[in-house]
Write a structure and sequence with these properties.
Blueprint: E1 3-7, E2 13-22, E3 26-31, H1 33-37, E4 49-55, E5 62-75, E6 81-90, H2 94-104, H3 112-120
Antiparallel strand pairs: 1-2, 1-4, 2-3, 3-6, 4-5, 5-6
């Protein structure tokens, strides 16, 4: 299972949700009406957003960071909408991890030693 945390420019958490789908171009997740309101500034423009994708591995979850733009928001029921986003930038190696997650349902080339090196950098 993959999850996403979306933050605004002030590093405030706007959304913490399970992904319904993921591709190398972006992802989809469910969002409520209240959360949609927090995606816009006072003038109604969409904010610049940062995302953290948590992908399942054989060991600990792998966190991939990047920035996104909102492609669309589609209503799927009275209380639930579908947020469709596109990646504008991702950290190095993220596309490989996403491709592996799509193929295998988890990231298989990742090991815990890589996480220790990444945290030290």
């Amino acid at each position: 299972m993959a999850t996403v945390i979306i933050r605004n420019e002030k590093n405030e958490v706007i959304l913490d949700s399970v992904l319904t789908s993921i591709t190398p171009l972006g992802f989809e997740c469910e969002i409520t009406e209240e959360e949609i309101k927090s995606l816009r500034n006072e003038s109604g423009r969409l904010l610049k957003l940062v995302c953290e994708l948590n992908l399942e591995t054989n060991a600990a979850p792998l966190c991939v960071s990047g920035s996104i733009s909102i492609s669309s928001i589609r209503r799927i029921s009275q209380n639930v909408n579908l947020l469709i986003s596109r990646f504008t930038s991702l950290e190095k190696g993220a596309y490989q991890y996403i491709a592996e997650y799509m193929s295998h349902g988890k990231v298989v080339s990742f090991n815990i030693n890589q996480l220790a090196v990444k945290r030290r950098a």
